Amino acid sequence: MFAVNDAEARGDVKSALEIIHTTSAQLDKEQFWHPSRVERLEQLRLLEALMPRWAHSRWILAQAMQGTHARNQWRMSKAIRVALDVRGGPDPGRDREDERIQILDRDWVYRQTFLYELGGLEAFLRHHASGDLIAGADRIWEWVRAPMRGLRLQGRAPRHLFWEDPRTGEQVTTINIGAGLLVDDGECVIGRIVPIDDGLMFETAPLRVPEEVAYAVADEPERWVDALRDRTGAPDRVPGEIWTHRGLRDYGLLTDIPYGLVNLAMDAGLHAFMNPDDEELDELDELFNHPADYPACLAAWLARPETIAALGAGVPLDGLAALRGFAEFVHEPAASLIRDLADHHEEAA
To answer: Tens digits of per-residue pLDDT, 160-204?
Structure first.
C-alpha cells in the first residue's frame, strides 16, 4: 500500500498499477484495493493525454484522502467525530469499525472537513506530492482555499450548469459533469466551486440540502457544519433530505454521478433518446431529471475502463452515428474518445 501511495504521489501510474496487479495475484484475487482507486488509475493509463488537467487535480484530492501518514491521524479522528456529530452520533445498531470504514470511504462531511477545514489537501501538496504531479494539475493551489458555498440550481445545458447565490443573486456557471443529476431546478446545494482552465467546477459533487441550509452557508460559509448539524437535528427534519453518506456518495475522477447510477442513467437516457413519447418515461423522472443531463451520463459511461475496452473492439455504424452527434455536447475526455472512434472507423473503411 505504501509503495502504491509513493508511486501515485510521483504521478507514476504505470508503477502503481503494476504493484496493484502483482499483489492482487498474490492475494489470490481477494479484494484488497478499493475498486474506485483501481478505476482511477486505469482511466489515467488508458486516456493519458486525453485527460483534462482538472482530472489530475481530482486525482490529487483522492490521494490526499487515502494518505496514511502519521501526521494525518489526528485529522482522520477529528473529521470522523465531525461527521458523526452531523449525523447525530454513532448508529447504535451498527458495528463501530464498519461505521468508521464507511465514513472514510463515503461520508461527504468527513471528506470536506479532512481536506479543507483540517488542511489535509494542503499537507499532501506540501509534504508528499511531487513537482511533476502538481505540475500536471489544474490550479490546484487555488483549490486549497476554496470556501464552502450555498447555491440554487437555476437551469442546465448539456455542457454547463447554472447556479445562483441565494444571498447575493450572483450567477455562477459550472461545467456539467453530472452534478445536477439528483438535483431539480430550483433546489439548493452546498459545495466548493474551484477554478479550472476552462471556467469553474465543483471539486466533487455538491450536497443537496434544504433551502434554509443553503442560505445559512451562503451567509456564513465557515459555519457550514453548524448549518448541517442544526438541520439534521431539527425535530421537523425530513428523512433522506440530506444524504451525507451511504450509496450516493462517490468521488469520481471524471464525473459527479454516483458510480452505481451511471449505468442506470445511461439506460434511462438511451430509452428517452430512442422513445421520446413513451409513457413509461414518467417512472424514470426521479433518476433522470432533464434531457440535458444525458450527455454527462454518456460521458461518464464512455470514460469507464470497461467501456473503453469494449468500444475498442468496434462500434456499429448506427451507434457511431449517434455518438458523433454528442461530441460537441460532452466534456473531455469523452469528446476526444468519440472523435477517435469516428477517425478509427474511417481509417478502417
So the answer is: 999 999 999 999 999 999 999 889 999 999 999 999 999 999 999
Residue 93 pLDDT exceeds 70:
yes
DSSP letter string, 308-323: HHHHHT---HHHHHHH
Using the CB atoms, write b or e for 140-168: b if 16+ within 10 Å. beebbebebbbbbbeebebbbbbbbebbe
Which domain does 211 fall in, by range?
A: 146-245
**Structural domain ending residue among the three candidates 122, 141, 160:** 141
How far from chain centre, in Å, is Cα 307? 18
Specify the residue for cell string 448508529: 91
Let me know if residue 254 belongs to a domain: no
Q: How many structural domains is the chain composed of?
A: 3
How many alpha carbons lie under 13 Å from residue 265 in its C-beta half-sphere? 29
CB atoms within 10 A of CB 21: 12
User: How far apart, in Å, do the first and last CA atoms of the chain sit?
Assistant: 46
Answer yes or no: are the C-beta atoms of 26 and 20 closer than 8 Å.
no
For residues 39 and 154, state if they share a domain. Answer: no
pTM metric for this prediction: 0.90
Looking at the DSSP assignment, which residues form a beta bridge with residue 103?
A: none
Identity of the residue numbered 134: I
CB contact at 8 A, 156 and 180: yes
175 and 293 housed in the same domain: no
Backbone torsions φ then ψ of 153, nearest 5 degrees: -75, 120
Sequence-distant (≥ 6) Cβ neighbours of residue 84 within 8 angstroms = 90, 103
Helices and strands (DSSP H and E) totals, the chain: 17, 6
Q: Answer yes or no: is 74 within a domain.
A: yes
Contacts 24+ apart (CB under 8 A), 156-165: 156/180, 156/185, 156/290, 156/292, 156/293, 157/292, 158/292, 158/294, 158/295, 158/296, 158/329, 158/330, 159/295, 159/329, 159/330, 159/331, 165/218
Report the DSSP pairing between strands 188-196 and 207-209: antiparallel
- Grid cell of 47 as nine digits: 486516456
